[in-house]
Protein backbone atom coordinates (compact mmCIF):
# COMPACT_ATOMS: atom_id res chain seq x y z
CA UNK A 1 0.00 0.00 0.00
CA UNK A 2 2.78 2.46 0.86
CA UNK A 3 4.32 1.97 -2.60
CA UNK A 4 0.97 2.69 -4.27
CA UNK A 5 0.45 5.80 -2.17
CA UNK A 6 3.98 6.98 -3.03
CA UNK A 7 3.39 6.67 -6.79
CA UNK A 8 0.01 8.39 -6.61
CA UNK A 9 1.42 11.05 -4.32
CA UNK A 10 4.04 11.93 -6.90
CA UNK A 11 1.41 12.22 -9.65
CA UNK A 12 -0.82 14.44 -7.53
CA UNK A 13 2.09 16.69 -6.58
CA UNK A 14 3.20 17.16 -10.18
CA UNK A 15 -0.24 17.47 -11.79
CA UNK A 16 -2.84 18.35 -9.13
CA UNK A 17 -4.99 20.71 -11.22
CA UNK A 18 -5.09 18.57 -14.33
CA UNK A 19 -6.13 15.52 -12.33
CA UNK A 20 -9.04 17.33 -10.73
CA UNK A 21 -10.16 18.81 -14.06
CA UNK A 22 -9.39 16.12 -16.61
CA UNK A 23 -11.92 13.32 -16.98
CA UNK A 24 -9.29 11.16 -18.64
CA UNK A 25 -7.36 11.20 -15.40
CA UNK A 26 -10.30 10.00 -13.28
CA UNK A 27 -8.66 6.59 -13.00
CA UNK A 28 -5.82 8.18 -11.03
CA UNK A 29 -8.32 9.76 -8.62
CA UNK A 30 -10.06 6.41 -8.27
CA UNK A 31 -6.75 4.72 -7.61
CA UNK A 32 -5.95 7.22 -4.86
CA UNK A 33 -9.35 6.71 -3.22
CA UNK A 34 -8.95 2.95 -3.47
CA UNK A 35 -5.56 3.10 -1.77
CA UNK A 36 -7.04 5.32 0.96
CA UNK A 37 -10.08 3.06 1.52
CA UNK A 38 -8.65 1.18 4.56
CA UNK A 39 -7.89 4.48 6.32
CA UNK A 40 -11.29 5.97 5.43
CA UNK A 41 -13.16 2.86 6.54
CA UNK A 42 -11.38 2.76 9.89
CA UNK A 43 -11.98 6.46 10.55
CA UNK A 44 -15.68 6.29 9.63
CA UNK A 45 -16.29 3.22 11.78
CA UNK A 46 -14.45 4.78 14.72
CA UNK A 47 -16.42 8.01 14.37
CA UNK A 48 -19.85 6.37 14.31
CA UNK A 49 -18.90 3.57 16.67
CA UNK A 50 -20.21 0.88 14.33
CA UNK A 51 -19.83 -0.19 10.70
CA UNK A 52 -21.56 2.74 9.04
CA UNK A 53 -21.37 2.29 5.28
CA UNK A 54 -20.08 4.49 2.48
CA UNK A 55 -19.20 4.13 -1.19
CA UNK A 56 -16.03 5.24 -2.93
CA UNK A 57 -18.11 6.23 -5.97
CA UNK A 58 -19.82 8.87 -3.83
CA UNK A 59 -16.52 10.16 -2.43
CA UNK A 60 -15.35 13.45 -3.92
CA UNK A 61 -11.82 14.83 -3.94
CA UNK A 62 -12.54 18.48 -3.15
CA UNK A 63 -9.04 19.86 -2.80
CA UNK A 64 -5.39 18.90 -3.10
CA UNK A 65 -2.50 21.08 -2.03
CA UNK A 66 1.16 20.69 -1.15
CA UNK A 67 1.75 21.20 2.55
CA UNK A 68 5.48 21.76 2.34
CA UNK A 69 8.39 20.88 0.07
CA UNK A 70 8.79 17.21 -0.72
CA UNK A 71 6.34 14.35 -0.95
CA UNK A 72 3.80 15.74 1.46
CA UNK A 73 0.25 16.79 0.46
CA UNK A 74 -3.12 17.58 2.01
CA UNK A 75 -6.28 16.08 0.48
CA UNK A 76 -9.83 17.08 1.37
CA UNK A 77 -12.62 14.56 0.74
CA UNK A 78 -16.41 14.69 0.95
CA UNK A 79 -18.07 11.37 1.81
CA UNK A 80 -21.73 10.36 2.00
CA UNK A 81 -22.44 7.71 4.64
CA UNK A 82 -25.59 5.61 4.92
CA UNK A 83 -27.17 2.56 6.50
CA UNK A 84 -27.51 -0.84 4.81
CA UNK A 85 -28.73 -0.89 1.19
CA UNK A 86 -28.15 2.86 0.85
CA UNK A 87 -30.86 3.79 3.34
CA UNK A 88 -31.06 6.85 5.61
CA UNK A 89 -29.95 8.33 7.95
CA UNK A 90 -27.33 9.86 5.67
CA UNK A 91 -24.21 11.68 6.79
CA UNK A 92 -22.14 14.26 4.93
CA UNK A 93 -18.61 13.80 6.24
CA UNK A 94 -15.68 16.03 5.39
CA UNK A 95 -12.22 14.53 5.97
CA UNK A 96 -8.84 16.18 5.55
CA UNK A 97 -5.91 13.78 5.17
CA UNK A 98 -2.20 14.36 5.47
CA UNK A 99 -0.48 12.03 2.97
CA UNK A 100 3.23 11.22 2.99
CA UNK A 101 5.30 8.28 1.70
CA UNK A 102 4.80 6.72 5.15
CA UNK A 103 1.04 6.60 4.64
CA UNK A 104 -2.12 8.64 5.19
CA UNK A 105 -3.50 10.15 8.39
CA UNK A 106 -6.82 11.91 8.96
CA UNK A 107 -6.17 15.29 10.59
CA UNK A 108 -9.74 16.67 10.68
CA UNK A 109 -13.15 14.99 10.55
CA UNK A 110 -16.35 17.05 10.27
CA UNK A 111 -19.80 15.47 10.23
CA UNK A 112 -23.22 16.81 9.28
CA UNK A 113 -26.20 14.53 9.83
CA UNK A 114 -29.52 14.69 8.00
CA UNK A 115 -32.97 15.25 9.55
CA UNK A 116 -33.50 11.49 9.99
CA UNK A 117 -30.29 11.15 12.00
CA UNK A 118 -31.30 14.00 14.28
CA UNK A 119 -34.71 12.40 14.81
CA UNK A 120 -33.18 9.01 15.66
CA UNK A 121 -30.68 10.51 18.11
CA UNK A 122 -33.39 12.58 19.80
CA UNK A 123 -35.63 9.50 20.13
CA UNK A 124 -32.81 7.41 21.64
CA UNK A 125 -32.03 10.15 24.17
CA UNK A 126 -35.68 10.31 25.26
CA UNK A 127 -35.93 6.53 25.64
CA UNK A 128 -32.61 6.31 27.52
CA UNK A 129 -33.73 9.04 29.92
CA UNK A 130 -37.01 7.24 30.61
CA UNK A 131 -35.27 3.90 31.22
CA UNK A 132 -32.65 5.47 33.48
CA UNK A 133 -35.41 7.13 35.49
CA UNK A 134 -37.01 3.70 36.10
CA UNK A 135 -33.89 2.09 37.57
CA UNK A 136 -31.71 3.70 40.18
CA UNK A 137 -28.07 3.36 39.13
CA UNK A 138 -24.98 5.50 39.16
CA UNK A 139 -25.21 5.88 35.40
CA UNK A 140 -22.04 7.93 35.04
CA UNK A 141 -19.97 4.93 36.13
CA UNK A 142 -20.94 3.04 32.95
CA UNK A 143 -19.80 3.36 29.38
CA UNK A 144 -22.99 3.86 27.36
CA UNK A 145 -23.49 2.41 23.88
CA UNK A 146 -26.16 1.09 21.57
CA UNK A 147 -26.04 -2.63 20.81
CA UNK A 148 -24.41 -2.24 17.37
CA UNK A 149 -21.73 -0.01 18.91
CA UNK A 150 -21.10 -2.59 21.63
CA UNK A 151 -20.76 -5.29 18.94
CA UNK A 152 -18.16 -3.16 17.17
CA UNK A 153 -16.20 -2.53 20.37
CA UNK A 154 -16.34 -6.17 21.45
CA UNK A 155 -15.20 -7.46 18.05
CA UNK A 156 -12.31 -4.99 17.88
CA UNK A 157 -11.16 -5.68 21.44
CA UNK A 158 -11.63 -9.45 21.50
CA UNK A 159 -14.39 -9.39 24.13
CA UNK A 160 -15.84 -12.71 22.99
CA UNK A 161 -16.77 -13.66 26.55
CA UNK A 162 -19.01 -10.57 26.73
CA UNK A 163 -20.33 -10.50 23.18
CA UNK A 164 -21.74 -14.03 23.16
CA UNK A 165 -24.16 -13.79 26.12
CA UNK A 166 -25.14 -10.19 25.33
CA UNK A 167 -25.96 -11.07 21.70
CA UNK A 168 -28.13 -14.02 22.75
CA UNK A 169 -30.07 -11.94 25.29
CA UNK A 170 -30.59 -9.14 22.76
CA UNK A 171 -31.88 -11.67 20.24
CA UNK A 172 -34.38 -12.95 22.81
CA UNK A 173 -35.82 -9.55 23.76
CA UNK A 174 -35.78 -7.73 20.42
CA UNK A 175 -39.22 -7.28 18.88
CA UNK A 176 -39.73 -7.55 15.13
CA UNK A 177 -40.92 -4.31 13.54
CA UNK A 178 -44.10 -4.74 11.50
CA UNK A 179 -44.24 -1.33 9.79
CA UNK A 180 -41.94 1.32 8.35
CA UNK A 181 -41.65 3.11 11.69
CA UNK A 182 -41.38 1.74 15.22
CA UNK A 183 -41.57 2.94 18.82
CA UNK A 184 -38.78 0.72 20.16
CA UNK A 185 -35.00 0.94 20.04
CA UNK A 186 -32.16 -1.50 19.66
CA UNK A 187 -31.10 -2.36 23.22
CA UNK A 188 -28.71 -0.05 25.00
CA UNK A 189 -25.61 -1.65 26.50
CA UNK A 190 -24.08 0.07 29.52
CA UNK A 191 -20.99 -1.53 30.97
CA UNK A 192 -17.99 -1.25 33.26
CA UNK A 193 -15.50 -3.74 34.67
CA UNK A 194 -18.02 -5.27 37.09
CA UNK A 195 -21.33 -5.23 35.21
CA UNK A 196 -22.99 -5.23 31.82
CA UNK A 197 -26.50 -3.76 31.70
CA UNK A 198 -28.87 -4.45 28.82
CA UNK A 199 -31.56 -1.77 28.75
CA UNK A 200 -34.66 -2.07 26.61
CA UNK A 201 -38.13 -0.54 26.18
CA UNK A 202 -40.79 -2.64 24.44
CA UNK A 203 -43.79 -1.61 22.36
CA UNK A 204 -46.09 -1.02 25.33
CA UNK A 205 -43.49 1.06 27.15
CA UNK A 206 -42.29 -1.59 29.59
CA UNK A 207 -38.68 -0.90 30.57
CA UNK A 208 -36.37 -3.83 31.19
CA UNK A 209 -32.88 -4.01 32.67
CA UNK A 210 -30.84 -7.21 32.53
CA UNK A 211 -27.72 -7.21 34.70
CA UNK A 212 -24.79 -9.49 33.85
CA UNK A 213 -21.94 -10.07 36.28
CA UNK A 214 -18.50 -11.49 35.64
CA UNK A 215 -18.23 -15.04 36.95
CA UNK A 216 -15.17 -17.20 36.34
CA UNK A 217 -14.30 -17.00 32.65
CA UNK A 218 -17.61 -15.57 31.50
CA UNK A 219 -20.58 -13.31 32.13
CA UNK A 220 -23.88 -14.58 33.54
CA UNK A 221 -27.29 -13.03 34.18
CA UNK A 222 -27.49 -11.83 37.78
CA UNK A 223 -30.84 -10.03 37.75
CA UNK A 224 -33.75 -9.08 35.48
CA UNK A 225 -36.00 -6.14 36.36
CA UNK A 226 -39.04 -4.67 34.63
CA UNK A 227 -40.83 -1.41 35.34
CA UNK A 228 -43.53 0.38 33.42
CA UNK A 229 -42.31 3.45 31.62
CA UNK A 230 -43.65 5.79 28.99
CA UNK A 231 -45.06 4.25 25.81
CA UNK A 232 -43.42 5.95 22.83
CA UNK A 233 -45.07 6.88 19.53
CA UNK A 234 -43.82 5.30 16.31
CA UNK A 235 -41.19 7.78 15.16
CA UNK A 236 -38.03 6.08 13.91
CA UNK A 237 -37.27 3.86 10.96
CA UNK A 238 -37.80 0.17 11.70
CA UNK A 239 -34.19 -0.87 11.02
CA UNK A 240 -32.73 1.73 13.41
Summarize the structure.
This protein is of the alpha+beta class.
What topology does this entry show?
Layout: H1 2-14, H2 16-21, H3 26-48, E1 53-54, E2 60-66, E3 73-83, E4 87-100, E5 103-113, H4 115-134, E6 143-146, H5 147-157, H6 160-173, E7 181-182, E8 188-191, E9 195-201, E10 206-215, E11 218-228, E12 236-237
Helix pairs in contact: 1-3, 5-6
Task: Explain what the structure shows.
By secondary structure, this protein is α+β, with helices and mostly antiparallel strands. The chain contains six helices and twelve strands. The chain has helices spanning 2-14, 16-21, 26-48, 115-134, 147-157, 160-173, and strands at residues 53-54, 60-66, 73-83, 87-100, 103-113, 143-146, 181-182, 188-191, 195-201, 206-215, 218-228, 236-237. The strands form three sheets. Strands 1, 2, 3, 4 and 5 form a five-stranded antiparallel sheet that branches. α1 packs across α3. The longest helix has 23 residues, at 26-48. The mean pLDDT is 89.
Amino acid sequence: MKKTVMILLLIFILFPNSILANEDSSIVSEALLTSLAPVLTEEIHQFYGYEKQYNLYDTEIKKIKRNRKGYHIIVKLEITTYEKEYLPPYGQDSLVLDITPLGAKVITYKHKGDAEEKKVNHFYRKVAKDIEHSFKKKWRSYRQTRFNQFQFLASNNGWNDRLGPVTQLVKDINEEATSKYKNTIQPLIYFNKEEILILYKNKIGLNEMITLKHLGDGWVVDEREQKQGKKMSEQILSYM
